[in-house]
Design a protein that fits this description.
- Among the domains are: 27-124, PAS domain (Beta-Lactamase, 2-Layer Sandwich); 154-230 and 246-307 and 454-482, 2-Layer Sandwich (Beta-Lactamase), CATH 3.30.450; 507-588, Helix Hairpins; 594-743, Heat Shock Protein 90 (2-Layer Sandwich).
- It is of the alpha+beta class and 751 residues long.
- The model is unreliable at 1-6 (pLDDT under 50).
- Strand 18 and strand 19 form a beta hairpin.
- It has 19 helices and 30 strands.
- The longest helix has 68 residues, at 488-555.
- Helix 4 packs parallel to helix 8 (299-345), helix 5 packs antiparallel against helix 8 (299-345) and helix 18 runs antiparallel to helix 19.
- Strands 2-12-4-3-7-6-5 form a 7-stranded antiparallel β-sheet, with helices on one face.
Length: 751
């Protein structure tokens, strides 16, 4: 009697099933018998309890007996096993042997292998009509040599199924491959007329527990001749050398789980054979043979099928590698195109923007995004930018993987509500070691109809053990929330793209570091040159201006008006040149003089500047607005010079206004004070804003407004030496606002 499982009881039953010791069942199938020998003494230590049925000898009469006393020339046949270069844990037919005791007159095939520190000998009655090698060899040879290069993996499996059915005569032979969840999809099948077909159907992963999958990888073939067999126990139960039940992982007669036998009977199958398809060390799939009545399989046929299975595994591995390499070649060609665009644009974001289709398609995505400190670019079908940025925040917080991928965002990122509505498939890669910069690809959700070979549900008995499922009728399920999975080649390609981009960024950083070092050296040389020239020119220019003035005073009455005009021009030019030299000298000193930081009261400093500049605006109508300004940490002399330059410019460029408006204000940020000087003067066109703070950059003619074009360059250098930045905003004939930021600092107390 069975009951539908509650979840707790079902989980317990599943755990018990997963712990079943299928490698050490303690018994064998009765179509043969087993003798376990301790080497090198060659003494028999265990036998199967059905041995008397075969030899007519009591078990006690064999335990402790020398192997040669039971099997004629037994030790010499064992030596053949030692001469093999292959793995001796796999059963090997050494000979058909004669027994020296008992009633067994017929020679029996002896299969030998070494495992669990002992020699295991298995004997099985030969087939009533043994398959001649002249029949087996051509079938296997035709399979090995008959594979065209254009043959797909499914076509290859179909051909293997045909050959194995001819070799074994089973009523149904099918192959299926496992998906990433472990479900098996039947991709090839050949059945007799009275057998149901399972081609195209899925068998749930729960049909094969994890320990059974591992055993399928180790032992490539398993035969069950009769699902109603009565197992033959090994006596004694424990391996003498280990004290544990004998490990029968590689035995051809190993008994199987009672749950699996019930599964076969539920499927109306009384004989089966499974051939493993192992690709790159993982269980890729199985070739499964079923028969409605008990059926024996000779060791010759079994060996031929195992060989065919190994060849099939290698051919699938080769084809998958070929497909993977072809896909990687296509991906790498597109990576080269993307890297070329990045190099041309000297920017990852701009380079990918130049090739949006290639960027999106090279991993088979429907949409993509580039997220950097400058913003988020999206291409194709993507979630809203706010959700993309939330995803980036989650990826950054994880911090444990360079590449993240999922085909079910709703399952794997459930707290980002709504993300899966536009993209169930997400593939994201970080392209910066320091900053949250990501390349992200998206695939939409695709509903999928899965045709199961029966409902995947199982039940549990009142004893708490798991019952195998009973129904194998086709059952349809609609699966939602998943996108097509990301191919391993696509993930590998994204990793290669990341490494290439990081390489470009690293090389660019090295080039910039070298350039910065070179520029720093050049700037120091220019500063030294500027300081030297400015210093040396000051005296001659002052002499020119002074002597011109003396000449005007001494000889002015005797000179013509024209000569006086020329002399005035010389005097004014010399004074301007002197002022220019003074400003150049000041500019060069900005990078050479050490700064001495202290607390600076900006309100007091602005009031002082206003007072000292009074002669420049005396008689004009200027309305000053000085809002409450903070106390900042700065070099007082340098900051005074910067503020004086900005206020002087405001006074100068409002000269034509009947009423001049000059406002000094502050905006507080978390990490900085932002000081602004605003006026209603002539303003400027914003297309020239990037020129304002350069040396000798002027936006107005000398005839309109005097100046050397060095003042704002001095302001920038002063503020940047304090760790801040400068910028400006202007509108022609409506005024200008100049801003500078000063980082918020605290002076360290002196000792």
């Amino acid at each position: 009697m069975t009951t539908t499982h509650p979840s707790d009881a079902f989980q317990i039953a599943l755990a018990n099933c997963a712990r079943e010791q299928i490698r050490t069942p303690g018994s064998i199938q009765p179509q043969g018998f087993m003798v376990v020998v301790q080497e090198p003494a060659m003494l028999i230590r265990q036998v199967s309890e059905n041995l008397p049925d075969w030899l007519g000898v009591e078990i006690d009469a064999l335990l402790g007996v020398h192997f040669d006393a039971v099997v004629q020339d037994g030790c010499s046949f064992v030596e053949q096993l030692g001469e093999l270069d292959e793995d001796q844990s796999q059963p090997y037919h050494v000979a058909d042997v004669q027994f020296l005791i008992g009633q067994q007159a017929q020679r029996l095939p002896m299969m030998l292998h070494r495992h669990d520190q002992v020699l295991i000998a298995e004997f099985q009655r030969p087939a009533a009509v043994p398959a001649p090698s002249s029949r087996l060899y051509p079938l296997v040879r035709s399979f090995v040599g008959g594979a065209p290069d254009s043959e797909s993996i499914d076509e290859l499996c179909e051909r293997a199924v045909r050959v194995i059915k001819r070799l074994t005569g089973f009523g149904r032979v099918k192959s299926y491959r496992f998906d990433t969840e472990g479900n098996g999809l039947v991709n090839a099948e050949l059945v007799d007329d009275d057998y149901p077909s399972y081609k195209g159907l899925c068998f749930p992963a729960s049909d094969i527990p994890a320990q059974a999958r591992a055993l399928y990888c180790a032992n490539r073939i398993r035969v069950i001749e009769d699902a109603d067999y009565q197992p033959a126990r090994l006596l004694p139960a424990a391996n003498l050398l280990t004290g544990q039940p004998l490990d029968l992982s590689f035995s051809t007669l190993r008994s199987v789980s009672p749950v699996h036998l019930q599964y076969m009977r539920n499927m109306q199958t009384w004989a089966s054979m499974s051939v493993s398809i192992v690709v790159e060390g993982r269980l890729w799939g199985l070739v499964s043979c079923h028969h409605r009545t008990p059926r024996s399989v000779s060791f010759q046929v079994r060996t031929a099928c195992e060989l065919l299975g190994r060849v099939l595994s290698l051919q699938i591995e080769t084809r998958e590698a070929h497909l993977r390499h072809a896909r990687m070649l296509e991906i790498r060609q597109r990576i080269v195109q993307l890297l070329g665009a990045i190099a041309d644009q000297d920017s990852v974001r701009l380079g990918l923007r130049a090739l949006p289709d290639i960027f999106t398609d090279f991993v088979g995505a429907a949409g993509a995004a580039v997220v950097s400190s400058t913003g988020c670019d999206t291409y194709g079908h993507t979630p809203h930018q706010a959700r993309i940025m939330a995803l980036v925040g989650w990826l950054t917080a994880r911090g444990d993987a360079e590449v993240f991928h999922t085909d079910n965002a709703g399952r794997d990122i459930p707290h980002l509500a709504g993300l899966a509505d536009m993209a169930s498939g997400i593939l994201a890669v970080s392209i910066s070691e320091l900053h949250p910069h990501y390349l992200i690809w998206f695939k939409p959700q695709q509903s999928q109809v899965v045709h199961w070979a029966g409902r995947p549900e199982k039940s549990i008995a009142q004893s708490g053990s798991l019952n195998p499922r009973e129904s194998f009728e086709q059952w349809q399920q609609i699966v939602e929330g998943f996108s097509p999975p990301w191919d391993p080649s696509e993930i590998e390609g994204v990793q290669e793209l990341r490494q290439a981009i990081l390489g470009i960024v690293l090389r660019k950083a090295e080039e910039l570091a070298q350039l910065s070092e070179s520029l720093e050296k050049t700037n120091k040389e220019l500063e030294a040159f500027s300081y030297s020239v400015s210093h040396d020119l000051r005296a001659p220019l002052r002499h020119i201006a002074g002597y011109a003035e003396l000449l005007s005073d001494a000889e002015g009455a005797n000179m013509s008006e024209r000569s006086l005009r020329f002399l005035g021009t010389i005097e004014n030019s010399a004074k301007f040149a002197g002022t220019l030299v003074d400003n150049l000298l000041s500019f060069s000193q900005m990078g050479r003089c050490a700064m001495h930081l202290s607390d600076v009261n900006l309100s007091a400093m602005v009031a002082s500047i206003k007072l000292e500049m009074l002669p420049d605006y005396e008689g004009r109508d200027i309305r000053w607005t000085f809002n409450a300004l903070p106390i900042v940490v700065a070099d007082p002399a340098f900051l005074h010079l910067a503020l004086r330059n900005l206020i002087a410019n405001a006074i100068k460029y409002t000269r034509g206004r009947p009423v001049a408006l000059i406002e000094v204000d502050v905006q507080e940020r978390d990490d900085a004070h932002v000081i602004s000087v605003r006026d209603n003067g002539v303003g400027f066109d914003m297309q020239y804003a990037n020129k304002l703070f350069g040396v000798f950059q002027r936006l107005h003619r000398m005839e309109e407004f005097e100046g050397t074009g060095i003042g704002l360059a001095n302001v920038r250098r002063i503020i940047e030496r304090h760790g801040g930045t400068v910028w400006a905003h202007g509108v022609p004939d409506q005024g200008a606002t100049f801003y500078f930021s000063l980082p918020k600092k605290t002076l360290m107390p002196t000792a």
